[in-house]
Structure formats: structure tokens, C-alpha cells
Amino acid sequence: MFNLNTVALVGLAVAVTASATCPGFNFGIIDTHQKVLDANKWVVVDDSCNVVDSLITDQNPCTQGIFSCAPGPVFNGYTSTQTGLQYACRPDPNAGSCGGLGDVQVCCRNDGN
């Protein structure tokens, strides 16, 4: 027979692991803080932390065509390299993290563009 406290803890653990990376958004952007041949790496992840796009550059990421930026610098837009769809991005207090990849900096959603 299960102890009620054990069931509650298991339910809490499942709820925590099932939470979305960016609830209500399509994608999240993460600065991985990884160096690849002296270049920086950013990844775009879905709600399950699957990498769906990335940018590796030693240049300003805001001028490479995949991300647009507001002063800060903060990413305020993402253009998918696979589909060309554009997504509006913003910081969100409910953004999560993806383990070894890092914390989501901004969440992005397609507003019909």
C-alpha cells in the first residue's frame, strides 16, 4: 500500500518534469555559454528541450540573420532557418531551463508572420 505522502511527492516530481520550457510559446532561446572554435553558440529549443535550430558565430548574433535584438542586448525576434517563419520573442517569468544547455533567455511565439 502506498503512503499518501509518497504519492504526493511522486505527483509533484512528475508535474515539475512535465512543465513546459516556455508555456504558451513555440520556442525558447538559450545562450549555451559553449565555445566552438572561439565562437559562441545559441540554441533554439521546443517545450521538450529538443534543439530545433542553432547559431554558432564569433560575430554579433543580432546581425547574423537568425535573431533580431532590442537594446540590452535582448533577442526580440527569431527567424527559423528551416521554415523562414518569424517569431516575436521576449523575456518571460515562467521560462525554464534545459539541463546542461542552460536557462532560457527569451521565449518566442509566432504571431502569424
What percent of residues adopt helix (DSSP H or I)?
10-25%
Major sheet strand order: 3-2-1-7-6-5-4
**C-alpha end-to-end distance:** 54 Å
- Let me know the average pLDDT: 83
How many strand units? 7
Q: What structural class should be given to the helix and strand makeup?
A: mainly beta
Q: In the residues, how many domains can be counted?
A: 1
Report what the structure shows.
This protein is mainly β. The chain has one domain. Helices cover 13% and strands 38% of the residues. The chain is built from 1 helix and 7 strands, in the order H-E-E-E-E-E-E-E. The protein has one helix at residues 4-18; strands at 27-36, 39-45, 51-57, 67-70, 74-79, 86-90, 106-109. The chain has a 7-stranded antiparallel sheet with strand order 3-2-1-7-6-5-4, with no helix packed on it. A hairpin with a 3-residue loop joins strand 4 (67-70) and strand 5. The longest helix has 15 residues, at 4-18. It starts with a helix and ends with a strand. The model is unreliable at 1-18 (pLDDT under 50). This is SSCRP protein. Keywords: Signal. Residues 1-20 form the signal peptide.
Key traits:
signal, SSCRP protein, single chain, 7-stranded antiparallel β-sheet, 7 strands, 113 residues, 13% helix, disordered N terminus, 38% strand
Summarize the entry for a quick read:
With 113 residues, the protein is mainly beta. 13% of the residues lie in helices and 38% in strands.
